[in-house]
């Protein structure tokens, strides 16, 4: 009788494991079907969109002036060379 209870317990354990495996397979199949329904495109990766930095009007003027000064310096060095 003891062997019968061990066999029964093992069968229950196997059943539980098989049910878990079936659930995972079902989830995998569902995921593949979703990808196939999208035309084979991969699922979009969640990315956090960065908002663009807002630069004030005065800051843009300062940057433009600084860039003009850098280019003037480059041109001046080219003339000297």
Structure description:
- The chain is mostly helical and about 80 residues long.
- It is built from 2 helices and no strands.
- The protein has one domain.
- The mean pLDDT is about 90.
Give the % helix.
over 70%
Oligomer: single chain
The total strand number stands at: 0
Number of helices: 2
- Uncertain spans: none
Beta-strand share of residues: under 5%
Query: What shape does the CA trace take?
Result: rod-shaped
The first-to-last residue Cα distance is: 103 Å
Largest sheet: none
Computed Rg: 34 Å
Number of domains: 1
The helix/strand series, from N terminus to C terminus, equals HH
Mean pLDDT rating: 88
Structural class: mainly alpha
Features:
2 helices, 81 residues, mainly alpha, rod-shaped, 0% strand
Quick take:
This protein is mostly helical and 81 residues long.
Write the layout of secondary structure elements.
Blueprint: H1 2-37, H2 57-80
């Amino acid at each position: 009788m003891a062997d019968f209870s061990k066999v029964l317990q093992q069968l229950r354990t196997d059943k539980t494991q098989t049910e878990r495996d079936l659930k995972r397979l079902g989830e995998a199949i569902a995921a593949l079907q979703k990808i196939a329904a999208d035309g084979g495109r991969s699922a979009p990766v969640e990315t956090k969109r960065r908002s663009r930095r807002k630069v004030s009007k005065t800051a843009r003027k300062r940057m433009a002036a600084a860039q003009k000064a850098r280019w003037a310096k480059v041109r001046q060095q080219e003339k000297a060379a």
